[in-house]
Amino acid sequence: MEEIANFIKTIMANDLESGKVKKIITRFPPEPNAYLHIGHARAIITNFELAKSFNGYTNLRFDDTNPAKEDEEFVEGIKKDIEWLGYNPENVFFGSDYFEETYKLALELINNGLAYVCDLTQAETSAYRGTLTEAGKNSPYRERSISENLTLFENMKNGLYKEGEKVLRAKIDMSHPNINMRDPVLYRIMYIKHHRQGNKWCIYPMYDYAHPLQDAFEGITHSLCSLEYDNHRVLYDWVIEVCKTKYKPVQIEFGRLNITNTIMSKRYIKQLVESKKVIGYDDPRMPTLAGMRRRGITPEAIKTFILSTGLSRINSTVEGDMLDHFVREDLKLKVNRIMAVTKPLKVTITNYEEGKIEYFEAFNNQENESLGKRKVAFSKHLYIEQEDFCLEKPDKHYKRLALGLEVRLMNAYFIKANEVVYDNNGNIIEVLCAYDEQTLSGSGFNERKPNGTITFIEATTANKAVFNKFEPLIIDDNEEISFLERINPDSWKTDEGFVEAGVYNTLDRFQFIRDGYYAVDSDNSKLTFNRIVSLKSALK
RNA sequence: AGGACUAUCGCCAAGCGGUAAGGCAAUUGGCUCUGACCCAAUUAUGCGGGGGUUCAAAUCCCUCUAGUCCUGCCA
Q1: pTM for the whole thing?
Q2: Smallest CA–C1' separation from A128: which nucleotide?
Q3: CA–CA separation, A188 vs A68, rounded Å?
Q4: How far apart are CA A156 and CA A146, in angstroms?
């Protein structure tokens, strides 16, 4: 936690030391128009941890200045996610609660000749603005008198004009090299019911005007935001200056976080949900915090992941492996490690009695015995992973089953493969094996070493789990949404896997450890492992 | 008359004038009733390129190059 965002931390420490601020106060200001995703976790954690490290605090403020996009559903979802991450905001505010004050300040601006009502249409405004390389030109309405502006703005507020007919603009500089300073719009007219204000207002402040004021009203000392607002900082400072606010917040930008093979944009997330490609914002495959929560990822894992990715003024794209690592690291002692088979291969124990079933005890987690034990079934009919068998041992590193070789079935016996059965197309569909009774797990047998240990499932008691309902989601190069397998296509397309009986139903969360939902490495070059899977029973 | 920002190992990222931290990934070996975990070891004479200042530069200066963002009455 010490290393978080050093470049920001240094600024804060200096401000504290110089006496510029007495206490560090930050804020996390989501617009309630979507659910939070893993990318937002960076902003949340950075804001909260930074303030906490200086004994300051953080406000949660819903940036709801555009009623066209916002909804109550999202404010509840966002609150829940933030609390889940372990943060209880000192205060919860809504940008819309400051509408009265921002309005009064706008009047001040007009009185000081710093704002005017403009009648240009949207297209005209755009044309007058100029381009990246050419200066803009002044609006013909720029020189209206203060009293006229006051009247017109009053009328705007009172609903005398149609949407788009008039806007309030700041009077700055139409030839400013930074386009954001070319008389930016401060207020626009919208006849839309606000989720909190109802129909009280028909003029709504723009982000560039409202945000710095909200920060100032709350005494925010450091206003952290992402890189794309860098170009807005000069306007942010302008607003703070001309409004003569008591507090002078400072905006600091940092890079966004992206994760490879992960959909992170609001737009796509929304599209997935609305097209019903996924169950909802909390679908376990989603990169939303709600989805990750449902998948069984813990807030601790997210926190250590975010903190370890660091923070800089670069939009970074970290590899999904890194997220996986921290999730595994966090989960490895917390979850049950049950057995599962995703691509089943039938195994018949030829020297085992037909109809007999034995149950062995196994720790739910070998590294954490406090998680208790469970029964593991064994009989003449089993399934193993297709990849755990091949006809001939390919090299000395191969530690699984092959014809003539003996392996340990985890928690059970040694078995030796003697024969294979083929289907009409020449595919191996079954392996005939013999078990050795004296090699039972826990018996202390050590007269010979098996060629590795593999997992298995007893066929008659196994629960089926539909894996293809949880295909990993990625976006292909054309940026069209598709359900491509992240990796080994076969393991997810062949529809069914098998999860050990008994354990599957007792879990109430979609927990996973790497291969549970990713199956094998992306290049399929190496199997890494823990075939540990559990699925949410409600989604059967 | 364009402006702003960024550039350190495959991916993140420390460093802020004193001779390149760490994590992920990878590789090698050991251990193992999960090829997991764990343990040990390896991985930038180099900090986008070129100049310069200095006893000393990733760190300062100049210059070039590349990438990102900005022309919503979105945030």
Answers
A1: 0.88
A2: B71
A3: 12
A4: 15
